[in-house]
UniProtKB/TrEMBL annotation, chain A:
This is Mitochondrial ribosomal protein of small subunit. The keyword Endoplasmic reticulum does not apply. GO terms for cellular component: ribosome. Residues 281-305 are annotated as: Disordered.
UniProtKB/TrEMBL annotation, chain B:
This is Uncharacterized protein. GO terms for cellular component: mitochondrial small ribosomal subunit. The keyword Metal-binding does not apply. It holds the Pfam family Ribosomal_S8. Belongs to the universal ribosomal protein uS8 family.
Length: 305, 155
């Protein structure tokens, strides 16, 4: 490793800067964007500063435009015009013929290099143009100003549109809603449970009259058809009368009456209802009656004394 | 955003205009709000208010999940010489045929040319375009070099 490469981080093989193929004159006229960009570029000395004297050189505050020489012109000027014309190869030595051929190969290479470089520059120009267009578009978007009428009349509605349309529930509100839902569900479940318990009780009371053995069945048949025949007969007559009569309300009066009585007294078919059973089971009823008894006794002792 | 809801809105406005109703309400959604603002900016409706199914709000009310179903947007309809200001309002894009316009097509439309099957813009007519979840009038969209979905036209 040589001494000089240490400044490149100890790396060898640093290539020199690539020399431009089209060095002095540009190959195309400046684009609108370039003209605009370079419009404010100024060189040289400030106003009032005396200029140094330099023979063969003129100071310009704004650089004069360089003459555009296109690739075709360059090829014509530097390559095609320089090719030797009307060479009679029969009079030349082998060496001279080889040199001519070599020069032609070099001219070919130069031409290729010009064209390749031109196409490369064209691609770069296209990319830059695209970027510029994009930038311009973005600037226009950023600079777009709405009319005064819109600015003055619509700030509130615009503010609605900026944020979310709906405010979500806060944590506390969400908890409240969840609690309410839980409560609703439990109330419904309780209602169902109570209904089931009520039905069960109903069934229990009804089961007292169920006929479960053969003897009971015999007894019931004897009761109905032999002992208490008239009751059976009258019941049958009543049913027939009711079926024959037009009013359906008549048939349900008894049933409705019983329902109302049950509901008011909290009973099931005239037997203790669910509330009564619950109180009894929990000992509440007994405690109440005991308390009442104690209170009555207390009153009596107070009255006697 | 649903074109079906937009179609319902257009039909509702036309129905209201046919029977000369002074104000009407539509569900409170972002699309409806954007459309209503567009109509208001272009002078097709006279007022725009937040409210509930009962009527416009007298006090500001927050929109929450609990009241969103009853929130409405109240639009004041405009009439001139006993004629409705909105003569016609109709969809351009349909749910089954969405019309996406390029920037060039938007500009062409704004400058009064026909684009594909969209007929040229007439005087006192507006076309609204949706771009980046916002609704723009075609002239504004052309100025901003936007492209997007052609929503509806109103005259």
């Amino acid at each position: 490793m040589g001494k000089g490469v240490l400044k490149y981080g100890g790396k060898s093989g640093i290539l020199p800067k690539v020399r431009p193929v089209f060095k002095r004159n540009p190959i195309r006229a400046k684009t609108a964007y370039e003209i605009e960009k370079e419009a404010h570029l100024e060189h040289g000395f400030a106003e009032g500063v005396p200029l140094p004297k330099k023979t063969g050189f003129e100071f310009h505050r704004i650089q004069p435009e360089k003459k555009v020489i296109s690739v075709e012109e360059r090829i014509k000027l530097n390559i095609e015009s320089k090719a030797p014309q009307n060479v009679d190869e029969s009079k030349l030595t082998q060496d001279q013929i080889w040199k001519l051929k070599r020069d032609e190969i070099r001219r070919d290479y130069l031409k290729q290099a010009y064209l390749t470089e031109a196409s490369r520059l064209k691609k770069i120009d296209e990319i830059v143009a695209q970027q510029e267009e994009k930038k311009k578009h973005q600037t226009e978007l950023d600079d777009y100003e709405e009319s005064d009428a819109v600015k003055l009349t619509l700030p509130t509605v615009d503010s609605y549109l900026k944020g979310p349309i709906m405010r979500n529930r806060t944590k506390e509100e969400q908890q409240l809603v969840e609690q309410q839902r839980l409560l609703n569900r439990r109330v419904r479940e309780l209602e169902v449970e109570e209904k089931r318990a009520d039905d069960l009780l109903d069934l229990y009371h009804a089961a007292a009259n169920f006929i479960t053995t053969e003897e009971e069945l015999e007894a019931a048949i004897t009761e109905a058809f032999e002992v208490n025949f008239s009751k059976f007969d009258s019941s049958q007559n009543i049913i027939e009368q009711r079926l024959a009569s037009a009013g359906p309300g008549y048939a349900t009066v008894d049933y409705n009456e019983r329902l109302i009585t049950d509901h008011v007294l909290g009973e099931v078919n005239g037997k203790p209802g669910l509330a009564t059973v619950k109180d009894t089971l929990s000992g509440e009823k007994e405690r109440l009656s005991r308390d009442a008894q104690v209170a009555i006794n207390q009153e009596r002792t107070d009255a006697s004394s | 955003m649903s074109l079906v809801h937009l179609a319902n809105l257009c039909a509702h406005l036309k129905n209201c205009m046919n029977v000369n109703i002074a104000s009407t309400s539509v569900p409170f959604t972002r699309l409806h709000l954007q459309v209503a603002v567009g109509l208001y900016k272009e002078g097709f409706i006279s007022s725009l208010q937040k409210g509930s199914t009962a009527g416009p709000d007298l006090k500001a009310v927050d929109v929450t999940p609990d009241n969103i179903s009853t929130r409405r947007l109240w639009l004041g309809l405009k009439y001139r010489n006993n004629q409705p200001v909105i003569r016609d309002i109709s969809l351009i894009s349909k749910p089954g045929r969405k019309v996406n316009l390029t920037t060039e097509e938007v500009k062409a439309l704004a400058s009064g040319l026909a684009v594909r099957f969209i007929k040229p813009l007439q005087p006192a007519e507006c076309i609204f375009i949706k771009c980046n979840e916002e609704v723009y009038e075609v002239q504004e969209a052309a100025k901003r070099h936007l492209n997007g979905l052609a929503l509806y036209r109103v005259k």
